[in-house]
Amino acid sequence: MNKFAKLAAALAAICLAGTFLTLSAAPQNSPRATPFGKQSSQPPASQFIYNRQLLSTTQSYGDSSGYNSGGKLVPVDSPLKFTCPSGSTCTVSAEQHLQVGGNAVTGNTFAICTEVDGTQMSQPPCPTLGEIPTDGSYVAGSFTQNMDNVQPGTHTLQTFFFTPSPAFAVYYDFTYRLYKP
Predict the structure, then answer these.
(1) 138/175 Cα distance (integer angstroms)
(2) Residue 106 and residue 87: Cα distance in Å, rounded?
(3) Which has more confidence, 31 or 64?
(4) Of 14 and 130, more confident
(5) Within a 13 Å sphere around the CA of 108, how many CA atoms are in the beta-carbon half?
(6) What is the rounded average pLDDT of the residues 16-34?
(7) Burial group, residue 116, by CB count within 10 angstroms (0-12, 13-18, 19+)
(8) 89 and 154 in contact (C-beta within 8 Å)?
(9) How far apart are CA 121 and CA 60, in angstroms?
(10) Cα dihedral sign for 21, 26, 31, 32?
């Protein structure tokens, strides 16, 4: 084989290898598996709350010692009154941190739910944060919920926890923020 043919074969091998590596590194378009079947390979569209002016921040923390007999929402902190000023709507944000325990039931999960005037924040809906240990130890969970288009006026804000079976809410730390456009 002459030098030209060897060079051509080497270049062809390099190009083939480069094409293979490029194709194998490309993102796969296979659908994501979920408990509800297959979904699009694209993640859901993100929702944003941005360009808001912070009006106030309130921190609520302590030892709740709240007992939940199971199957209902139980308050963790005291109700907080806040005022959305006239002239525009407001956005409320609740950053939630909660420790729970005292469980002897396998599969007992817990959720944190913050309400404005008795209506649960739905951005996102009340998240289930995990399973409570069965050995009497504790676990903590955190999440942030939001509610926009809160009308001007005085409102009440409060955080609750939910468990299907009995459990205790122990230490908590909630940061509530009020924004306006």
Answers:
(1) 21
(2) 50
(3) 64
(4) 130
(5) 26
(6) 37
(7) buried
(8) no
(9) 17
(10) positive
140: helix, strand or coil: strand
Report the pLDDT value the prediction gives residue 33, as an integer from 0 to 100.
35
Nearest to 47 by CA among 124, 139, 160, 137: 124
Handedness of CA 158, 133, 105, 168 (dihedral sign): negative
Determine the length of the chain: 181
The amino acid at residue 32 is R
* Domains along the sequence of the chain with CATH: 53-180 (2.60.120.40)
DSSP 106: T
112 to 62, 84, 88, 109, 138: CA distances (angstroms): 16, 24, 28, 11, 15
The DSSP H or E segment spanning 91 is strand 90-101
d(CA 171, CA 45): 34
